[in-house]
Design a protein that fits this description.
This protein is mainly alpha-helical. It has 2 domains: about 100 residues; about 160 residues, no CATH class. About 85% of the residues lie in helices and about 0% in strands. The protein is built from 8 helices and no strands. Helix 2 runs antiparallel to helix 3, helix 6 packs antiparallel against helix 7 and helix 7 crosses helix 8. The radius of gyration is 56 Å and the shape is rod-shaped.
Length: about 350
């Protein structure tokens, strides 16, 4: 038994849809004629209004379908099938307008997200630089600052976000300039400390060498004086012994006394010669030692100048490659001190 409403056959059109079918031609014709400028605010609004009317027609068909389907499952299948046909046509008409509207919405969403992401990146650059100014490579900080300073901020690039972007850019530039200034001050202080340490070490080395030289000179002088004193004592003792012998012999005979006088004179001459030779020897040894120390000092100074020339060449090579002079000097100093593994300078 057909559970459909009276007067409705299995193959006949469902009366509940007659009104909608009558409207389809009108809707179809109107939908085909309508042309909207989706980019224009008024055109966009009109397109949305038209889609809304079509959706209302679709909702009315859905409501009628549900009412008719309740009468019979078989009738409901016919109801569904015919409703589906109508809905497909309406959906097709909706898609004509809904797709460009959806594309515009997505494009607008992407545009806003892009501006927000770019602004977040600018803000993050300033924050990270301000927090990690000791860790980020100095040249990298300056390069990123230059990039942000060159970032064009106007409505052509940022649309309605231009004011926010300009404020974010100014804040980031201020943070980065402050961080760079702090880094420059820190590196300058470190370089000054290194210079003062080197000067202090050089003064200490020079004082130590001067002390060693003075001590050596003092010892040499003391040794020479001691040798001369011993020689005088020996000569005096020898002379005393000979004078005693001469006095004894003088009692015996005049010739023996004269001989003793000659021997005394000769002994005194030998003593004088010996003293002179000792003094000249000490002076010669002192002079040779001073000359040797001067030669050693000159050799050290030449070696120091040679090292400085090689180091200056290395600094110049670093500077030519783009490294700052202070950083280049620090790098060469560390290499010269063998503080960098597997890297050394050949002098």
């Amino acid at each position: 038994m057909d559970s459909a409403p009276a007067g409705v056959g299995h193959n006949s059109e469902i009366a509940a849809y007659s009104e909608f079918r009558a409207q389809l031609s009108e809707l179809r014709a109107g939908n085909a004629k309508l042309v909207f400028d989706y980019e224009d605010p008024q055109g966009n609004k009109d397109a949305r209004s038209h889609v809304y009317k079509l959706r209302k027609a679709k909702s009315a068909v859905e409501a009628a379908r549900k009412d008719e389907k309740a009468a019979s499952l078989e009738y409901g299948r016919r109801v569904d099938g015919q409703a589906k046909e109508i809905i497909v046509e309406i959906e097709t008409m909706i898609d004509v307008h809904a797709k460009p509207l959806a594309e515009i919405e997505q494009r607008e969403k992407d545009r806003i997200e892009k501006h927000e992401a770019n602004m977040t990146e600018i803000i993050g650059a300033g924050t990270v630089t301000a927090e990690k100014w000791m860790d980020i490579p100095f040249e990298a900080m300056k390069d990123r600052l230059a990039e942000i300073e060159a970032e064009p901020i106007d409505e052509d690039h940022w649309d309605e976000f231009a004011l926010q972007a300009a404020q974010a850019k100014d804040a980031a530039i201020a943070q980065m300039r402050t961080a760079i200034a702090k880094r420059e001050k820190h590196e300058a202080e470190q370089a000054e400390l290194l210079r003062l340490r080197k000067e202090a070490e050089e003064r200490e080395r020079a004082d130590h060498e001067e002390k060693i030289r003075q001590e050596a000179a003092r010892k040499a002088e003391e040794e020479a004086e001691q040798k001369a004193k011993h020689e005088r004592q020996r000569v005096e003792a020898e002379a005393a012994r000979k004078r005693a012998a001469a006095e004894k012999r003088e009692l015996k005979l005049k010739l023996a006394a004269e001989k003793a006088d000659r021997e005394k004179a000769e002994a005194e001459q030998r003593a004088a010669n010996a003293e002179k030779e000792a003094r000249e020897k000490a002076e010669r040894e002192q002079r040779e030692k001073l000359e040797r120390e001067a030669a050693e000092a000159a050799e050290r100074e030449a070696d120091k100048k040679h090292h400085a020339a090689i180091n200056n060449q290395a600094v110049a090579a670093f500077v030519a490659s783009g490294i700052s002079e202070d950083a280049a000097k620090q790098a060469v100093t560390l290499i010269a001190k063998r503080a960098v593994p597997n890297v050394h300078i050949t002098y």
